[in-house]
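Quick entry, no commentary yet.
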Amino acid sequence: MKKLVVLLCALLALGSSAQALEVSAPSALLMEKETGTVLFAKDEHAKLEPASVTKVMTLLLTMEAIDAGQLHYDDVVTASAHACSMGGSQIWLKENEQMTVSDMLKAVCVVSANDCAVALAETVAGSEEAFVERMNQRAAELGMADTHFCNATGLPAEGHVTSAYDIALMSRELIRNHPDIRQYTTIWMDSLRDGASSLVNTNRLIRFYQGATGLKTGSTDSALYCLSGTAERDGMELIAVIMKAPTSTQRFEDATNLLNYGFSTYTLENVVPESALPPVPVSLGTQATVQPVLGENTHLLLEKAKAGSLQQLVTLADSVEAPVAAGSQLGTLTITSGEEVVAELPILAGEEIPRVTFGQMLVQMLRTAFLCG
């Protein structure tokens, strides 16, 4: 009887897990932002139309221009005839109408304004065509092998495709390196033109999902309903990508299921040594020791069940010979959970130690001899 109860509990847990991971869309992916770990995937490399989720790349290039000082939030953009001709989702810019970069970013993030997306593209690159070249170049740099962009908006165009995996890559790049985009992607309701134009976010997660941070919706008759949905809880941010969902409601349900699964199953830990790392002796160096440090990537993505039983083991070299380059490996911090090794983090030299020259060695010997005498 006891074995039967245990078996039933196991089957119930399995059923619950399967239900949490139920995704009706033909293509989907769940990724953790900090480590880039894929937590769930379903036909993630299928080349599909992304509709306005394309604008994640438009936003990325715009934010990169802002962070590089080439563009500023309060710069005024003048709408071109081309930008005003886009159709689809828009805020009905008039030719020569002027609006700040900040307000145009708000319009793109909240109501997916095609006219503002093109106006920003023209401001960054001179023309939409030149901007699209940059989009494809940036996609290649990010390893987006399933992607080809034909415009800055995601309006239907022959050959304009990407994948759930590639959308996660560019979404991660945007939210990880340009967190200021959140000031726009987390807006639920706002207005432009001194209150004359009301805005309501097309992303229902912002209103109804705890911790939602963005990111971009998209839909056309051929692309159906797409989404890159992001949310953060307890210091961990997840990216849920849904492509070609049959209805708008279904894309949000799918994204919610993926995010719920991620937050209930995983945790992100920032590894800190339990005790100070001792200096490592250096022979033939300009100083006697080098101070070890952990590398920059100290975040560890773990199943919650393993997070409470972590142990650390530090292994360091007995000594090293100069020259010692900053960042060279001195040892390893091994993280275990029970008998399982869950991570091995490199311990690096925190500074450069040059090799002592013959002249410096001679001076040291003479100084020592003098002091001893």
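second:
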Amino acid sequence: MPPSFNLPFVLSVAGAFLASSVVAIVYVWPVVRTMPRHDALRLLAAFHAFRFLGNFLVAGFVSSELSPDFASEVGWGDLIAATLALVSMAALSWRWSIAVPMVWIFNVWGTLDLLNAYYMGATKIQNPGLFGAGIYIPALYVPLLLVSHVLVFMILLRSGPEEQTP
């Protein structure tokens, strides 16, 4: 028997991905693609610095019935991603020679962390209500974050000098 899933929750996540993608295509990408590379990357990394908020490690934020292993892995993954985002922002701001490699590390880690959290949630958490106050994270914030990770990859993969404006 295949695992059950909560259709309203899945539709909420899918809707958030669709809305995030449309907003990124229509409003965000036209602006960031014309910015100098370091500035665009710094702006997008700033969005990820807020992954400290609503952390699953905070007692009472999620149901006490939620797997502590799941909450711990997701919580620590977000804390590491937020820290990498902040370090990337500093490196970009101060034009450190490791700035772009640091953004690659942040972006790969952050993307894999979010995909891992979705996978673990889909395979181990049958009741999204266990997320408690944190339900907005997988239903709204993670789609926004994943779409912004795609934008970062698009900027990183552009060819040309670091500060070239298309």
